[in-house]
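Input/output pair, single chain:
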Amino acid sequence: MPSLLLHTDPLEPAMHGLSLRRYGASRGSHAHGHFQVLVGLSGRLDLEVEGRGRHIAAGEGWVIAPGDRHDFESSEGAQCLVLDTSELPWSRAVGRTPMAQRTLSLARYLALCLGQPDAPKLALHHGPALLLEAWGPLPPSASRRRAIDWAALSLWAQARWQRPLTVADMAAVVCLSPSQFAQRCRDEQGMGPMHWLRQQRLVHARQLRGHGISVAEVARRTGYRSPSALTAAMRREEAAAP
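Output:
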């Protein structure tokens, strides 16, 4: 990855890579279909995610979930280490701040690696996993939780609409057999796995439409074969609503 990246198209295809980014007084706003992890290196970044404001200074960080609209600017300039990733374990870090000193030390090292002409491949390969580990452990009650994290599974699916997802794919993510997952889905969501998956795709499509994206582009990004197929699916859902 290059050492500096410009902000690209909102909701671009899922990525997985580290970069250094500088932010200035020009206000930006977008959303994308993957997790974005921000760790402050210098200055202060003013961030607003889905209407909620945050400040990211050196050692502070935040995880932006797929699809979340966020605005950003820095009146005095800021530099951040940024990770763009579709890896589902990052859903556990959404809404949690990192352990500042540990994360800052790691972020500075990774930033140093990115700034070298011949970036150390091993460091950058393992950097995302180390960054997740440095974010700190889950609270004890959360780490004992064995229920399916349906919101996280939905985010995982959103990053993969272009693929023909199966019950076995979803079951593997939550470490269950396909039959076990299918039963859990019926018990907890009141529908079969593929019905649930279709609903998640429609929910995501409506979110994108809410951001003013055209029907054709939404259909492309959510894996529908055509705009008319998306429109028909939305009409069927509306007709089936009580």
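Strands lie at 17-23, 28-30, 35-43, 45-49, 52-56, 61-64, 70-73, 78-85. The CA atoms of residues 34 and 66 lie 5 Å apart.
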